[in-house]
């Protein structure tokens, strides 16, 4: 289960809406082993594409080092789908490389409604999990 | 002195859980070959058909080796090499 604050959910959704129709992506860091997403980091989508995302490699190095220095890990890795449902695509599954992360998907295909779902992706296997939004 | 290589979580099964290992070589390719001798299987996760895998980022100190010389990039004692899997995906 992913437990996440309403404020962080709002930040992810706002980022996804702002970058629509391109996919938005980012990380929420938290203390190692805590499973608590705390520090929101919007990342650039180096692909600037409506169907693909990739973290900019230099920005990723900087952010990953910063997490290392602060004894944090990527608790949440999020991205948006802008025309399809918030479910991991084959591409998402094949590139998933953080076995400890919650992979959050948001769909912005509907202007009025937000789909916000979370998954574990380990060794090519997708498991959807419950999302508990707290204050 | 040696070259420090920082290993991401997903590849630590090849390094007995170590976050960093040491190796030697004059180029990135030689360094990866040296690591492979002690950590079999690691090379295949980094290199495909004689080039770095597209969705693995390898950095020499503060630079992405794609912008240096890929596997031919010269390395030296005291350098730090960082491996990070690219974070990528998308609806396509």
* CATH homology group of chain A: Cytidine Deaminase, domain 2
Q: What series of H and E elements makes up the topology of chain A?
A: EHEEEHEHEEEE
Structural class of chain A: alpha/beta
- Under CATH, the topology of chain B can be stated as Ubiquitin-like (UB roll)
EC number (chain A): 3.13.1.6
Keywords (chain A): Amino-acid biosynthesis, Cysteine biosynthesis, Hydrolase, Metal-binding, Metalloprotease, Protease, Proteasome, Zinc
Catalytic activity (chain A): [CysO sulfur-carrier protein]-Gly-NH-CH2-C(O)-S-L-Cys + H2O = [CysO sulfur-carrier protein]-C-terminal Gly-Gly + L-cysteine + H(+)
InterPro entries (chain A): JAB_dom_prok, JAMM/MPN+_dom, MPN, VirAsm_ModProt
Structure description:
The complex is a heterodimer of chains A (135) and B (92). Chain A is α/β, with parallel strands linked by helices. Chain A has three helices and nine strands, in the order E-H-E-E-E-H-E-H-E-E-E-E. In chain A, the strands form two sheets. Chain A has a six-stranded mixed sheet. In chain A, strand 7 and strand 8 form a beta hairpin. The longest helix of chain A has 14 residues. The radius of gyration of chain A is 14 Å and the shape is globular. With 92 residues, chain B is α+β, with helices and mostly antiparallel strands. Helix content of chain B is 17%, strand content 29%. Chain B has a five-stranded mixed sheet, with helices on one face. Chain B has a two-stranded antiparallel sheet with strand order 3-4. In chain B, 30% of the residues are buried. Chains A and B meet through strand 4, helix 2, strand 5 and helix 3 of A and strand 7 and strand 8 of B. Strand 4 of chain A pairs antiparallel with strand 8 of chain B.
């Amino acid at each position: 289960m992913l437990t996440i604050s309403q404020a962080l959910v709002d930040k992810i959704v706002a980022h996804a809406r702002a970058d629509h129709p391109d996919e938005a992506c980012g990380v929420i860091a938290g203390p190692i082993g805590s499973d608590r997403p705390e520090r929101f980091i919007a990342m650039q989508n180096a692909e600037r594409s409506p169907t693909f995302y990739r973290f900019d490699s230099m920005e990723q190095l900087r952010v990953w080092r910063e997490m290392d220095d602060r004894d944090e890990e990527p608790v949440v890795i999020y991205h948006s789908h802008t025309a399809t449902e918030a479910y991991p695509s084959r591409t998402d599954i094949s590139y998933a490389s953080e076995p400890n992360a919650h992979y959050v998907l948001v769909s912005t295909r509907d202007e009025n409604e937000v789909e916000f779902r979370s998954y574990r992706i380990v060794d090519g296997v997708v498991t959807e999990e419950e999302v508990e939004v707290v204050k | 002195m040696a070259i420090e290589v920082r290993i991401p979580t997903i590849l630590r099964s090849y390094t007995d859980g170590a976050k960093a290992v040491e190796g030697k070589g004059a180029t990135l390719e030689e360094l990866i070959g040296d690591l492979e001798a002690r950590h079999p299987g690691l090379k295949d996760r980094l290199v495909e058909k004689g080039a770095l895998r597209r969705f693995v980022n390898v950095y020499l100190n503060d630079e992405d080796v794609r912008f240096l010389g890929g596997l031919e990039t010269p390395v030296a004692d005291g350098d730090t090499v960082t491996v990070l899997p690219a974070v990528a995906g998308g609806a396509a």
